[in-house]
Amino acid sequence: MATSDNGKHSCFRKFFIDELKDILWAEQHLAEALPKLADASTSRQLKAAFEKHTRETEQQIETLEKVFELLEERPQAKKCEAMAGLIREANDIISQTDTDTYTRDAGLILAGQKVEHYEIATYGTLRIFALHMDEEKVAKLLTEILDNEKATDVALTKVAENHRVNAMAVAE
Ligand SMILES: [Fe+2]
Questions:
Q1: How far apart are CA 23 and CA 19, in angstroms?
Q2: Full-model pTM
């Protein structure tokens, strides 16, 4: 039930904080997984894209920590089953494809885009939640992360199309 202190202890706020803990876990584990995806990549453009996003993900973790600070909450991560599954899928793609093949790259781009779309959905919703709670600074930080995830998704599409990863995979 809502309380009189501007919803500081409302169920919705608690739910919002829990979802932030979930995405914090997701980012922390993605930051560990991305270098493995970079190492497994065949094309240097894909490798570079995963390396770039590793650095960006580390930055996103710092931004999320700022979000917790603004909300006066501890940045405590909580296991995100969705991200755990997406990372497992990416690892499966590596084990199911041969080293130095574009088929592997095509699979890694698929895995990467699934991750980005999951994150886009999450941050897109969480920023709206923040706005509804009049947490404008929090919403701004979440929007920054959202924009970065969208740019990463576009970058992965470019690797697939402009650098002909899919075309090379079909020709293998
Ligand atoms: Fe992210």
A1: 6
A2: 0.93
